[in-house]
Structure formats: C-alpha cells, structure tokens
Amino acid sequence: MNTNDLLIELRKFVLIKSGLRNIDPAHCKIISEYVFQETKNYVSETTIKRFFGFANTLHKFSLFTLNSLSQYIGYNDWDSFCKDKENQTTSVQSIWQDLRLKAHAITEISLIAQKNNSGVPFNATANRSFFYPDFDYFLKNNYQFTTISAQPGQGKSILLAHMVEYFFLSENALYKNDIVLMINSTSINTIIQNGDTLKDWFLKEFKFGSLSELISFFKKNPEKREGRFIIIVDGIDEHLGRSNYFKTFIDFLYSIEENSFVKLVFGLRTNSWINLQPAIYGSASLTKAWYTGLFYDQETLSNVPSLNADEVLYTLSHIENKIINRADVSTPLLTQFKTPFWLQVYFKLKEENHHLELSNPLLCYELISYFLEKRVFLAKKSTEKVFLLKKISDCISEGNKKLRVSKEKILSYINCYPDAYEELLHAGIIIEEKRLSTTIPTEIVRFLNDDIYTYFLFIQITDKFDYKPCKLFFEHILSNFPGQTSLRDHILNWAIRFCITRNEISALKNIFRLPFANSEKNKAFDFICYVSKYELSKPNSNFNKLSIGIDFIDIMASGRTMSNLYKETIKTISENVLNEDVQIMLHIIECNVNLIDVDKIALANTMQLLKRNYKRLNELFPINPYDLILYFYNNLVNKPNESKTLEEKIVKLCQEIDQSKPQKNEEITSAEILSYRLVLITLFSQKSYAECHRFIMAILSKYPNIFYVRYSVFSPFLLLHLGQTYIKLNYFKKAQRIIQFVDKIISSDYTYYTNFILAGFSVLKANFYNATNNYEQALIETNTGLAITAKNNFKMFEISLLLNKIEILKHTEESEEVSNVIKELLNFLTVHKLSMPDYSNLSSHEFEHTFKILKSYRRHQNL
C-alpha cells in the first residue's frame, strides 16, 4: 500500500474509534481531546483539520502526529500500523472496483474541501437540479469532455459538488458503479507539496502511467470495465495562469484517446476558458468531443445561469431558519443575491451583525462595503489595489451590454502593479473577458458587478471634495450623473450612507434644496430613515444616542411622509436619543403621526412622556404643543374641551408672528413648523376659519416667500390649508387659484412633495368641486384620494374622504350607493378599531347633521 492508501486507512480507523460515521470541522476539536485522553499526546485541532482535509496541508504530517493517531487506534506507532496493513491479505477484487475505491477516497476529501469553501452551509445551497438533465445527456452520449464555466462567485464549484453527490455518491445515486474522481485545488496543492508530478501521482494511486494508458487498457480489455470513469477537475484557474501548467493541461487534452467511457469535466472561470478555447477550436477532434451544454452563452463563455428567485429564497430560508418569501426581501437585494457569491457575503456579515433586515435596501450597500473592506482595504497591497480600482472605474464606459474598459487603456496602470492586479482578478473583484464582436478580438476588463464599479465612482467623488460632503459635493452628483437613473440613485445612496456614518447630517439637506427630482428626494428620505435606524443600532457608530441633533429633526420635520418606515424611524430614535430637546421634538412628531393615524393609545402614551417636560415645551416652542395635542386627544375620546384659554394663546401667537420682521425662508425653525401645523389643524377643527386665515396670513407676513419653498412639505401643507379655508369662507375663486398654483408646483419635478400631500390635495379638490356643485368631478377626486389613502394607510384622510363621498352622493340620485359608502365607512372604523373624531370631518356645514348621526351610531355601536 502507498502512503496515501495508508493515510486513508488511518483516517477511517480514527473515525471508527471516535464513534463517528461522518465528520465535519466541529468534530476535530473533540477528536483532539480524545487523542490526548487516550495517549497523553496533544495533537492540535488545526492538525486534525488538516489530517481530514478541512484545511490546506502545507507539509507532510509529522511522525509525532502519525504515531499519536496510530496509538489512539491501538497500535504502538505509525510503523506498526503500516506493517500490519501491508501484511493483511489484499482482498481479491476487480481492477475496476480497486480503481473505484481509490478514486472514491480522493473524491471524498475533495468534496469535503468543496463544501467547506462554500461560504454558506452546503445544505443551504440550491442544488440547481434544472442542470441535471443536461449533465445526464453529456454522460450518456458520445462526448469526451464538458466545461462548467462561469465568472467568480456564480457557484460553479457548489454546482459540481451537488452533481457529484446526486449522480455518484448519494444513497439513491443514479450511477453508483461509475468511478468518479474529483480533483480540486486542495488535491493538486497536496500533490505539488509532496514533490510529485501529476503523472507520478496518477501512477502511484492508480497503477497506470497516464490516463491514456488507462483508456488503452480498458479498450483492450472491455470485459474488465464496469461503468464509466468520470474525472472532475475544479479550482485550477490559478495554476492555468502559469505557462508551464497551461501547456501541460493542453497536452493532456490532446493526449486523450477517443473513447466512450472516460468523461472529463472541468470547472473553470471564464477568463481561464478564454485562453483555453482557441486551443480547442484549433482541433477538430477536441471541438467534436466538447459538449457545450444547453446553457452555454457564446457571449459570456459561461453555462452557469444566475440563481432564480426561488433558489435565492431557498438559501435565505435555510440561513434564517424560517420561510423567507419574496415580500420579505427588498427587490434590489433579491437581484443582487442572484449571484450566489453575495449570499456568502451575507452569511458572513450576518454572523457579525444581527441587526440586518432583508427588507432593508441598505443591506445591498453594507454587503458591498463589507466585502471590499475584507478583500481590498484590509488586504495586502491595499493602496495599490485601491489605486487600480479607482483608475479602472474612471476609464470605464458603457458598452453594448456591460460597463467595461479595454485592457489596453489601463495597461500602464497594470504594469505598475502587476501583482496587485493579478490578486484582484483572482479575488474576482475585476474580470477579464474577450470582446469577440469587434473586427479584432480585444481584451476588456470590468467589475464583478456594476455596484462595485459605482462604489469606486463614489470614492472618487469623496476624494475630489476632500471627504467633505458640502453643497458643491451634491451639485457635482446632480450635474455629472443623469437624472432618473439607477446610477444616480446608487451614488445618492452611497452619499447618504457616507454623511450619516460620519454624522454630517446637515449636508443631507442639500439633497432637498437642490433640484433633484421629487422621486429622488422621496427615495433619499426613505434611505435616510433606513441608514439612521441601522447606524443607531451599531455599537461604535458616529451617529449615536449622544450625537443626534437638531439637523436630524430639521430633515424629519420638513419631510413628513407618514410611511410605516417614517413612523418606525421616529419611534426608534426617540426611544434612544439622549438629548432631551431632540427627544421632545421627536415626541411632537410622533403625536402628529398618531393624530393622522387616529391612534388614541399611542397618542396617550407619547403625551405622558411630553407632560413631564411641560415647562421645557414652553421654552422650546412658540406655543406649547401639549395644549394643542390635548385638544385633539379629548376630541378623539369624546371629552369636552376647555378651549377658551387655548384660543387666547393662539390669538396671542398670531399677533406675535404678525408683528415680526420679515425673514428669509431658511430662518424658519423646526419648532415653528411643528407648532404652526398643530395650530392650523386645531383652528380648522374648531371651525374657526377666519382665525385660520388670519394665522396663515401672519405666517406669510413673517415669511413672505414661504409659498415658494420647494424643499419642504410645509409649504404645500400651508397652501392646502389656505385652499380649504377659502372654501369654508366661500372664497371660491381664491380657492381655485390655490388649486391651480399647487397643480403647477407639483408638476415641477424638483418640488418636494409626498403621497400625504397628494392625498391632502385630493381632499381639497374634492371639497372645492363639492362646494361649487360639480359633483361628478368631486366624486372623481374623492376616488383618486381614496386610492392614495388606502395604499399608504392614511387613516384620517380615508375617513375624511369617505365622509366627503357620502355628502357628494347625497346630492345625486345614488341613494343606494350612499348606503354602501356608509357601510364601507363603518366597516373601516370597525376593522381598524377607530373612532370618528370631529377633526376628520372636512365637509360642508350642511353635512354636520349627517356627521352627528353617523358619529352617534358609531358610538352606540362601540357601547
């Protein structure tokens, strides 16, 4: 028996002695302890891992290790074990079965290494069974070899491991009598380190001088062949990069005799395949013998498709130990995970940080950052690598299908740092391909994916502005990246993450002040919420409990979107911030949200927190917001209000504002915005429409250009309120002008407005058309508004619009439809367990009687 056979036997007996049928890395520590208990010799866990193939073997095993393991299974030493095995009578078995057993032992070790290099637990990886019929066709037909070729990170090695198990090794394997020999980089490195050539190794293991010799033997002795001999070679790309190994490999392909029973499978990266392909196309026999497969893409030279959504969700469900559906994963993340490599990065990142949510779009950026930090910024030659990646991203242009650059254009940079470039290629961060569609085939270079390219584009912007995200920084993004494109969205998201991680929150205001499109502003606002929540959960973040200040409040107050994300962000940060003034302001925003949600319980809880700071509220705000919120709370729970004192405070505030000197729009504070909102909806709820008009005019006196603000939702909020006030005062022409003006500013793409504003605008238009007896148009606007409120869960507006719809229909002959809408309203209130507060009734005075009946019915129903 040769040394390798003896080592295989020793492994088998060590497993039997340890009571293990199979082994994984976690068992190695246990075996180390068993050996020490039995022999009092310490063989480390790392050595045991190397012995069983879980780690690379950089040298032969020491005699001490072999003696210790031999003693563990009952022999005096390694020499005694070897002699005993040599003296045992060799079992009489066929040459084929002998080859099968030896190949099986090597394949098992290769398979263990393959599974351990998975990055995601092997049982969590999708088996990609759609590929199996194609591979089966190759096995059964007259082809000599096939390739599983793909870019790094596409999962070719895992696919090969699944196929080896499915076809040859599993309990229900289709072809158990075939010989499968799987060789990977671990196997080849061991052979090289032992000082053998591949030819020497093959002779030692299989007693044939070469594969050609083995083929010739079974051709002459067909009765001794009991199946097929499948050789699978994977992970040799690094070796093929050396000219001597490349030549050996080509010679090996040419030397194989034509036959029907030896099948070769090569797992190769596409850049290795680019170099091999000309050699194959140069030989008619090799071209005929090569099976490209159903999934081979001539353009990319790959036949491993990206994962589909079901395969991604299968792996995520195993990682998370629960069923993950499409709705649980953000769309950009699902797309990113279609490259299996990112699932590996996610698995590693998740082990370090448990605050990540698959529904959070920020995760895409965290994965890229984490990967590049490990593979580039903390790797050897990081300075050279970052320099190269910046230069490559700078030179890249949009090709027919991908973002890429001709290798010729960056050759001078590559020649400066050839080793760093090779390491980037091997790590799979950049990829070389052949562009075959040109007159002369040219080499091109691109990034593993476009998101990494975008990251290095963004890094160049930060360099250009000395890591200071100022107004010019965002103007550069605005002018250098086309609007309404995913590229600009990604750059803006990187910028938001950059600002928040450095706690430069005030810089983010530039996104709203500059003429970015409204959709970009809304997406940016959401992303600010995602990043701020995540950063707050990290232990060493610059954006933390101590550092959150008024700049964050300014953004939250001027961008009230009323989304669930917004509510969660406000609540999360208010519960964690240590600055009491900031916390108070967040509680006021929470109360605003609760009023619109008609949420009595949440409102009462937040009011309890505010009440403790009643005195400080007087100092922070131009009017104490607690008094205003209490008015609405009493309204919600049907308590009478002592409103005279409150009215006096509002009148006094109105006079103070009116007497103020005119100021610029930029000077309005978040405290003012929050107070003015509450005052206006209070006056409107009290039906003090003349006072409401006076208050808006006072604000206009202090801030003459407030209606022309395009970066805050406060401006359209004021306009909508003024329009509603004009309707109540029967100033219909003025109300119409407000509607036309709001229509005009919303049609200007850079105006910042939200779905909440759109819903409010529908309410205004519905009320206007109802008041001017245009019931058909009023109904259209009401239904438009209801579509927005239902989609965005704006409960207060939904009640208002349903009340409005009842009033409109009462003016038509649709009496049956009136009953249906009343049922719809009462059902909505019941399902959501809501009352019907007075402030939700924005309809005309003629509707008061109907509203009281509905409210009375609702109250009676609750009793």
Task: Round the Cα radius of gyration to an integer and report it.
Answer: 36 Å
The rounded distance between the terminal residues' Cα atoms is: 90 Å
Estimated helix fraction: 55-70%
Structural class: mainly alpha
- Examine the coordinates and then state which fold CATH places here, giving the name of the CATH topology of the domain at 95-291: Rossmann fold
Molecular shape: elongated
| CATH class wording of the domain at 95-291 | Alpha Beta
User: Count the strands?
Assistant: 9
Quick one: biggest sheet? Answer: 5 strands, parallel
- Strand order, main sheet: write it out: 2-3-4-1-5
Beta-strand fraction estimate:
5-15%
* Gross CATH architecture of the domain at 95-291: 3-Layer(aba) Sandwich
Count of discrete alpha- or pi-helical segments spanning 4 or more residues: 43
Task: Walk me through the structure.
The chain is mainly alpha-helical. Among the domains are: 3-88, no CATH class; 95-291, Rossmann fold (3-Layer(aba) Sandwich); 309-376; 754-862, Alpha Horseshoe (Serine Threonine Protein Phosphatase 5, Tetratricopeptide repeat), CATH 1.25.40. Strand 8 and strand 9 form a beta hairpin.
Give a brief outline of the structure.
The protein has 863 residues and is mainly alpha-helical. Among the domains are: 3-88, no CATH class; 95-291, 3-Layer(aba) Sandwich (Rossmann fold), CATH 3.40.50; 309-376; 754-862, Serine Threonine Protein Phosphatase 5, Tetratricopeptide repeat. It is built from 43 helices and nine strands.
